[in-house]
Amino acid sequence: MYMLKYALKRLALMLLTFMVIMTICYVMVKLLPQPDPVTFGKDANLVLRRREMLGYGKPILEQYGIFLSRIAKHWDWGIGETLKTGHEVAAIFAEKLPSTLLVNLYSFFFSVPLGILFGIFAALRKNSWSDHFISTTVMIFVSVPSYVYAFLVQYFLCFKLGWFPFLMKPGTDYFSWKMFVSVVPAVLSLSFGFIAGLTRFTRAELTEVLTNDYMLLARTKGLTKSQATRRHALRNAMVPILPSIIGSFIGILSGSLIIEKIFGVPGVGNL
Going by C-beta distance under 8 Å and a sequence separation of 6 or more, which residues neighbour residue 83? Predict the structure, then answer.
């Protein structure tokens, strides 16, 4: 019963957070200048009529109420006017979701083992030349945005060396070998920053655990350094690391939109 109440409470907080973020985004977008209907050509009158129907001339909060009511009654998230003119927003999201998940899942499963291994290696060799090298590299990769890696990967691996295609393979066969090869540049671009952040966090947590008193107690009881590290240090260090991995996946999901635009993911390259 307690767990059920806790789960319901967390769901309620999640919905509240979602509503706050959506409200802020809606108001900020409405404060921007609206696109000129003249640019839509023969569809300009249709655009003006739809804006009038949605209450564009009314106060922002009243427009927001109309927006929420249309979502609740008809699951109508609006019609695109800038990215894909005349297309439903919900349909556009549904079209892009498989490609987005594909790139993120590949980068996630590629980055997590490497980030943890590099972090463990650096922590076990603290203050050595390898630790300094990894820490310096991590600082560089964390500081550079993922879209910079995307252009560098595209230039060197796709243009100079010709190992991968410039754009991702179109089609719906997401798990074919050709699709996998075409996705590699985008996956690498997303993975560099994720690996660096996870390496830094793993090193910090494991370094702190290795200096605790119970590690000294384990050594005095006869355990070797590797045994004490495997049985005690790694287990305790993973407690804060695993939740951070889940949060990092959400961060990759947001950053992948730029990467997909650069590499032309099917369904995203047409934005």
Answer: 92, 271
According to DSSP, residue 229 is labeled I
Q: What is the pLDDT of residues 103-161, one digit of tens each?
A: 888 888 888 888 888 988 888 888 888 888 888 888 888 888 777 878 888 888 888 78
- List, as one string, the DSSP characters of 163-212: -S-SSPPPSS-TTSHHHHHHHHHHHHHHHHHHHHHHHHHHHHHHHHHHTS
Instruction: Tell me the β-bridge partners of 79.
Output: 88
Q: Please give the Cα distance from 265 to 268 (Å, whole number).
A: 5
Q: How far is CA 169 from CA 15, 97, 265, in A?
A: 37, 16, 8
* Contact between residue 258 and residue 161 where contact means Cβ atoms under 8 Å apart: no
* Exposure on the CB side of residue 6, measured as CA atoms within 13 A: 3
Q: How many CB atoms lie within 10 A of CB 188?
A: 20
- On whether the CB atoms of residues 161 and 77 are closer than 8 A, the answer is no
Q: Check: CB of residue 233 under 8 Å from CB of residue 174.
A: no
Q: Compute the distance between CA of residue 186 and CA of residue 167 in angstroms, rounded to an integer.
A: 9
Apex 255 CA angle, 234 and 166, nearest 5: 110
User: In this structure, what DSSP letter does residue 79 have?
Assistant: B
For residue 170, give Cα distances in angstroms to 33, 178, 253, 266.
35, 10, 20, 5
